[in-house]
Write a structure and sequence with these properties.
Elements: H1 2-8, H2 14-32, E1 42-44, E2 47-49, H3 51-58, H4 62-65, E3 68-71, E4 78-81, H5 92-105, H6 110-117, H7 123-130, H8 152-170
Helix pairs in contact: 2-5, 2-6
C-alpha cells in the first residue's frame, strides 16, 4: 500500500501517507467491517495518525527500509519507493479503494490532507469531541448512511465472528 501511494501520488511524505492509509482503512471498514492494514489511528493535532507506523518511520525496520527511503528536502519529507508495486496480495475491493483514494488525493498537499481529515462529524472530529485529543479513533465511527456502508449491526456481527475464529485458531 505504501508503495502504491508513493508511486501514484505527488509529493507523498509521511503526513500525506498516513492520511491516505487512514482513508483506505476507514473506507474499507465501512464497506466490510475490517481494515486493510490492521493499524490503529489516533486523533493527534494534525489528524489521524497510525502511531505504530510513525514509530517505525523514526527507526525504520529492515522490511520498511527495504521498500522505501525518506528524503528530507528543507522541512518537508518525501518518500521514495525502492520497489515496484505488485497487486498480488490485494482483493479487487482493496484495489478499487486504493485507486479511489489516489484519484481524490493524487495532487493534494499534506496541508490539504490534514484539512480533509478534520471535517466535522468525521471519525477524527468525533473522537476529539467525545474522547479528546490523542485518543484512539474507533473504526465504527466510519459507519454512515451512505449506500456503500454496511449497517452497524452487520459490522458488529462480522467483528464478533472474526474474534471467535481468531480465538479458535489461537488455542
Amino acid at each position: 500500500m505504501i508503495i502504491f501511494f508513493v508511486k501514484n501520488t505527488k509529493q507523498c511524505g509521511k503526513t500525506k501517507l498516513f492520511k491516505l492509509l487512514y482513508y483506505l482503512d476507514f473506507i474499507h471498514f465501512r464497506e466490510t467491517g475490517r481494515s486493510v492494514t490492521g493499524l490503529d489511528y489516533f486523533a493527534l493535532p494534525y489528524g489521524p495518525v497510525p502511531c505504530s507506523l510513525l514509530d517505525e518511520f523514526k527507526e525504520m525496520p529492515d522490511d520498511l527500509s527495504s521498500i522505501i527511503t525518506v528524503e528530507k528536502p528543507d522541512k518537508f519529507n518525501i518518500i521514495i519507493a525502492k520497489k515496484q508495486f505488485t497487486d498480488l496480495h490485494f482483493s479487487k475491493r482493496e484495489l478499487r479503494i486504493l485507486n479511489d483514494v489516489v484519484y481524490i488525493f493524487k495532487d493534494a498537499r499534506a496541508d490539504d490532507m490534514i484539512e480533509a481529515s478534520h471535517l466535522p462529524n468525521h471519525p477524527w472530529d468525533k473522537t476529539i469531541k467525545i474522547k479528546g485529543k490523542n485518543q484512539k479513533i474507533d473504526y465504527l465511527l466510519a459507519i454512515d448512511d451512505s449506500v456503500s456502508s454496511l449497517p452497524i449491526g452487520e459490522i458488529e456481527e462480522r467483528i464478533k465472528d472474526r474474534k471467535e475464529i481468531e480465538h479458535i485458531f489461537n488455542e
